[in-house]
Amino acid sequence: SNQNNSVVVRLDIRLDENPNETIWRIRQHLNNEIKTFGGGGSCASPNDLLQWRVDLKLNATIDFVIFDRGSNGICCDNGHGNYTISAEYPDGEELLESSYYSFGKVDRKKFTL
Q1: pLDDT surpassing 80 at residue 105
Q2: Mean pLDDT across the chain, nearest whole number?
Q3: Which residue has the higher pLDDT, 51 or 75?
Q4: Rounded alpha-carbon distances, angstroms, from residue 51 to 9, 32, 44
Q5: Which of 43, 90, 77 lies closest to 52, judged by CA?
Q6: In angstroms, rounded to a whole number, what is the distance separating the alpha carbons of residues 32 and 19?
Q7: CB contact set of 83 (below 8 Å; sequence gap of 6+)
């Protein structure tokens, strides 16, 4: 369902050796309406690379939050996890955010589509 007013946003995430510790949430703010989407690594194997997609509205403000219950992020104590967030536009992809560093318990990003 790719209407002109929405875009698919993709999270590519390399989990660490404790994938069940990692969850994420996306909150979409548009016209005083808030929608929340989320996922996690609970069904993943250690060091898995996951792709997670969500359909979001253009011109929305997006809050992305990733939590690690082990408080050691997804890098670098128990593996070398990282993530990128990309928008899949009809004419190509745009990298919105990336993380290749240790973030402890929580990492937050904010962007507009």
Answers
A1: yes
A2: 91
A3: 51
A4: 10, 29, 11
A5: 43
A6: 34
A7: 11, 12, 13, 14, 66, 74, 98, 99
